[in-house]
## 1
Amino acid sequence: MELTVSPAHQKLRDRVKRATRVDLFPTPAVQAAFLAGQTAGDPTAEKFVAETYHGALGGEKSAALLDEALRVGIDNVPDAPESMRALFAEFETIPDWLDPDLIEQGAAVWRRWGYSLGAVGNAGTMDTYTEGSLAVPLSLSGGYAGASALNRYLETSKWWLEVCKPGAVLTPGSKARELSLKVRVMHVSVRARVAEHAEWNAAAHGLPISQSEMLLTLLGGSVGPAFGLTALGFLTSPAEVRAVLHFNRYLGHLVGCSVDDMYPQTYADGLRLLYYFDATRKHDSGDLGPELVESFVPSFQPPADAHGVARLRGTLHLRLQAGFTRLFMLPWNRRNYRLPSGLPGLAILIGRAPFIAAVEVLRRVVPGVDDRWQAVQMKRWRRWHAWHLGQHEEQFDATKALRR
């Protein structure tokens, strides 16, 4: 497969480089790694899933075996196959680059961003549904298509909420680590099924849910919101961006994203990668892009039987989500989709930005404000999640068949 830079992006890059000596593209080595990553997967987890979920054991028994190993420890599961032991060994390995202090600082950034992290992340993600390599797996698996779009978002939100709890990702047996491994197995299961599907074009798209595409999700949880949320009053310092990059790098390790040869070390390097992705878009998702984009925001519409406060609350979140798309989807992409007006939500987001900025300044100069700010943001996020989720539980189901 190939990645071709659009003439418009190349022209802008050349002009900026001549005027400022700043290159908008990553280095040639990173570009090469990003291309190679389009066809790279997760061999250790793939071997486990092929042998168990997609093998003689079957999905239901494999899921139960994984739950048991997570509950009592892999060493206490005598029937665990070697592929499963290899997966747990890789999962439990602490990378030599890991800095626990930076991990906690990065998690704290997520706690400050709170609900806005998920909203801006999803608006940015919807902007990438121009790409068949991203849209085909999501459409086939059904996670973000049709009526299930909100439920899948709630599952992802549950993972976000767990991994940013203080100390959670480094605590053996934590819910954060459990969900991370289940996300990894689910991705691998979907990858295998999509790769064999008639709608998947390996020559054009490489591997479904590839290493490079997983890298983009890590950037969507670090430099993307650090840059975008500035417009909404969140003031994230360069040091905090480096910390949240480090945090996301370890999250990548947990979910099977091994991108050390291209992972950005700085804010600027992360923005270069995002620009390079935008420069090499194929715009080949066809009807699948609108299917996914036009499912998500309307899924926040209050049900017909909702009344009073519940209806007002649901409508508020519908408007906010539409406002995030207005602000964080590229206008020339957004206009291709039928979406609720984002103007009311945008007015709310911009209107509260000065108050957020004031708190962001105070947290740097007044002791205790930062901790309180994190607590308030997380309480609001958890309250929203619990209200929508109701009695449902997160699934991260690796046994589910493709929907067509």
## 2
Amino acid sequence: MSSGCRPQSPAVAKTEVAVEGECPLLAATFAYWDNILGPRVRHMWAPRGEQPMALSDGEVTFLANHTLNGEILRSAECGAVDVKFFVLAEKGVIIVSLIFDGELKGDKNTCALSVILPQTELAFYLPLHAACVERLTHGIRKGRIWMQKGYNIISVLSLEIAPIMELLASMKSHCVPEEIDIRDTVLNDDDIGDSCHEGFLHKAISSHLQTCGCSVVVGSNPEKVNKIVRTLCLFLTPAERKCSRLCRASSSFKYDTGLFVQGLLKDSTGSFVLPFRQVLYAPYPTTHIDVDINTVKQMPPCHEHTFNQRRYMRSELNALWKTDSEDDIPPETVIYTDETFTPDLNIFQDVLHTDTLVRSFIDEVFLLKPGLALRSAYLAQFLLLLHRKALTLLKYIEDETQKGKKPFRALRNLKADLDLKAEGDLNIVMAMAEKLRAGLHSFVFGKPFYTSMQERDVLMSF
């Protein structure tokens, strides 16, 4: 071999993932820095079937070089995961890379888990970026434990890569449009008593707003499910609508963590079981709406949801660390092994807090003629009112606490001054403010953890 010829790198191990429909993801790769050969791609996942463009092994290696070349002197805290976003116009691709440290064959290596999409899918992917990164990050947490114990990290990563490919494919075909025609929603009906009971609609919208705009709509009739999905999406921003999904008429999608609103069909027996782990790992609490029996249930508020989520996550990682063999606890199993924390699988509860904001909106919006722009304008005015109340609440808390320098102890005054005496009204505005300033719930209700029952007692005492 002449000195000018570089030795060929070994072929990249590849897994083809069967995905229904068109998957915009070109590939996902797991690469690491080899101290002798430099960046090496250990595994690649690609959707099976026709793709808009395909990547050769050489192109995958080139992209791995691009993501890992600047990381050899990486200085980060133990367990840190850095997210990097590359747009390579010359290759026509975008790359989202999660950089982390892990042990391979007893040596500490800098690793990168990357997803690669065509540059033309940038606008489609951006609203889903946070959801994808959060899911991949937790997969890496489990994968690092597997690497530390000498197990196969590829099996762990595959459990998250394949569902993300399915998620992106489903969003490509059934994503809620950015602009929703009010004629396709319940708010256009002359008499909502025929298609949707007024009390049910009020409770659904109120709970939907109390859980930061996150809802799961289940039912047997896809048209009815999608009508409620579109109705709830009216109360979301255009970007949040792009992160919501209609149900599929032929068969049901799986529940996906990170979406705002999603429609799901029941099976032939008339049931749909939500996966506990995925629901608990959602960034916000969720409302569960059954359009067949007109029931609305919701998860506990944000601070309690976050507490349960982090506690269960630690319990899960703890149990994985204590395994003696790779087959003891599959990484997707619900964990019960922590004696100090047994998860409550019944995480949905009745909507306990009544409100006046949504009640007044529903009463008044149906006084306007349907099929005109009046109802859309009135809805926009209602959302603007909620947004301004949320900004006012944030400013009120900021002033009372000297921008967070002291604890907040003026909840009773806040409710009176901002006309939020009904618990449901307070919950709705707090949820709107939570999305503007993450961690607000935990700050307002203090460091000691309040369960939903204790919190309700506190509110009722004012």
## 3
Amino acid sequence: MRVILQPHAGSRLHQFPNKILLLAMFSTCIGGTFQCGYNISIINSPTKYVQDFINQTWRQRYQTEISNNGLTLLWSTIVSMFTIGGFIGVSIGGTLSVKLGRRGTLLANNVFSLLASLLMGLSSSAGSFEMLIIGRLLIGINAGIALCVEPMFLGEIAPTSLRGVMGTGSSIFLTGGILSGQVMGLKELLGKEQYWPLLLSTTCIPTLLQLQLLPWFPESPRYLLIDRGDKEKCKKALNQLHGSEGSDIVLEDIQKEKDNLVGFKAKKPWELFADRSIRWQVITIIVLNIAQQLNGVNAMYFYADYLFRQAGISEDNIPYATVGTGACECLTALTCGMLVESLGRKVLISGGYLLMSICCILFTVTLALQNVSPVFPYLSVACVFAFVLSFGLGPGGVTNILTTEMFKQTTRPAAFMIAGSVNWLSFFIIGLLFPFIVIGLQHYCFLVFFVVCLSVGIYIIVVLPETKNKSFVDIQKEFQSRWSKETNFDEADALLISTAL
């Protein structure tokens, strides 16, 4: 069945993403956010085996056992290199997207994942845990670039009325990658000790898929016309992606944005902080990306194993229950994709954070009463799933869409660099501090996450306008009409005057 969505005023009806757009989304995301999610979860299953390998390698080199502190340090280095690589990747992703194009950057990015796959796969045979460290750094760079450029590319190839549906592709494939990594780590597949190098090297599979598929699709039409000034290639790309009937409307929208940006060049991240016309957009992406890491979803996953044991689930079956939480997040990401154009971005993301804040309170109460009645462990497990569902339904799926929609062509790459840098730094910091927070506050740590989720939910309700079915120019104008009090003649005023004309 085909679904018809009502676009913004003045445009024709657009069908649900045609097969070309869906294939373009698949080929983009399979080597991007899917790859990122896969490498987030795949490292968990072989933890003990990799630690045994480090211990054995140390013994062979130095004829002595490695200390517990030394082993912990090396293991934490292997894990944390992914976040350091992510920060490096997002720092260069925006610049590369301007120089190489969106699609060109995604294709070039596969070099990092192929090298990472080779290093991690051969680390055991070579007897080198250093290869694991470098491999995790490289795959982190790959993830950082992908998370910066992929949502930008999807938002720019989609017509206005389908931008939300296409944008949720990133979160759907991210959660799909996490789930796939959990499944691949089961003992029935590659979760046995002798298979851990093969398990880590399977990251090359989505890379090879992207290299086979993505070259068949065109570069971002907005990049071709606005950044490169190539109208013929832009028309050709639009015809391939949207068909000849829908391409004229999109071309008109892109040309309108280009006319508004005459004389303006792509900005650097630090220039965005000095631009008063987009002050609230910058503040908003910083708030949303910090909140994505500090909202407690990682803490909820941390407590999941403990709660599954409390609920009577056997040790052997806990990995399958954990896969269930991953499946829930994947399901809600799909649900978000179906609802984002009907309910809108603001309702989903604010509602998601408010539901998460309620779950934090309930979870704290049920954890405090674990020994009062045998029913409370099951209520706690229900809170885990409710929290994960709330995250996937709103914050997990909508954040990247908003980063795409709140900025114009000249500021979008820099905005993604800022958003990604904040996100990866927050990821790194929470990874370092989270164990101490749990030890110090125990289950009362969720009161901290309650404050974060509630505050962000209120901030979104007060500050963020609805962006559904609005062009990038219209969204910019709405932010300015809400918050601009000064009338300096800068890019913002040029935009407003030219659109009024």
## 4
Amino acid sequence: MTATSARITAVDTFDVRFPTSRELDGSDAMNPDPDYSAAYVVLRTDAGDGLEGQGFTFTIGRGNDVQVAAINALRSHVVGRCVQELCADPGSLSRDLIGDSQLRWLGPEKGVMHMAIGAVVNAVWDLAAKREGKPLWQLLAHASPEWLVSQVDFRYIGDALSPDDALRMLGAGRAGLAEREAMLLERGYPGYTTSPGWLGYSDDKLTRLAKQAVADGFTQIKLKVGADLADDIRRLRAAREAVGDGIRIAIDANQRWNVDEAIDWTNALAEFDPYWIEEPTSPDDILGHASVRRVVAPVKVATGEHVQNRIVFKQLLQAGALDVLQIDAARVGGVNENLATLLLAAKFGVPVCPHAGGVGLCELVQHLSMFDYLALSGTTENRVIEYVDHLHQHFTEPVVIRDGHYTAPLAPGFSATMREESLAEYRYPDGAFWIADRAGQEDAA
């Protein structure tokens, strides 16, 4: 098989679930018992080079099978495609998947179907970067501005961002790229940690982990809030006492409140100097976010992990509804749509601080922030990537944190490959862990 004739031969999917609810890892006011999960996809080829494309989208347990089914519904668009053409133009597949009129009816460009598209598109980018022998951040940062613009769908966002705007910003962003890349490789990209702040943790555990975060070099932590105001006041007081005044503390309500509640609750916590309030209300309530932002300043408003597409991000920016934009590598339609969102944020001058944690989200989104720093925004000022110390051991190239910074990954690809042993152990419902777990429950009954 020649390199030019190789085709995609299979789209394999896996329902992978981890029992994180049992330790309350990931617990918050809206999601008290998440089982962190991945609808995982592998693109296989007949190229004979051993390279595969891996991608996934993140869920929190029940419904992960629905997400896998959505990925399977895209298989006919992918199998048989020329590998070389696909990797040279991932946007071609993105447009075809989004443009399937019958599947589009289930969105359009939102929800389970759109997340499935993101998983497949991200797997193509993973394969493309592996074939280039580069980590994805480096492939993107060194790509020509013209090619990057060709990967962006400007439909519905042209009133805020034109191809000419994007080309101009990407052209300007190349100035000083080599120097920034050297700094990135030496220092890494700043992170912050949510590990101390899960709502189900005791005050002692919160305090211990907050102090550890500072010792590990983090200059920002995040706490979940929104279930009980008295508890939040007590927990924030404990956290502030643990880390001191020089460390930023962000708070995250995970969409729990109405607009008036968000304002009152955030103002009640203002004495602890929260840096931002994240997802204060519904991710679809653009004007609600704008109302909250006007009243709770100087506390910043951050949102984005559940924003479903570039069109909603556009409106949040146009409405002045957020101070911090939080992309998610696996919520929207993959790298292509995240490029659009990064360009929108740069156009409006709003810093991007990605959502991560979950299963593999840290591994993915580091590439997008590093590209943004190197070739678009040119700065890490007031920019941090979320970090959660869970489940990284299940990836062949897990993130490496050093002194509170993400170390730039050097392995080719998108850092999306899960270990075969983890797939065998945690595949649901027939992985070794889940078989043993059911047997244990039956014995206990």
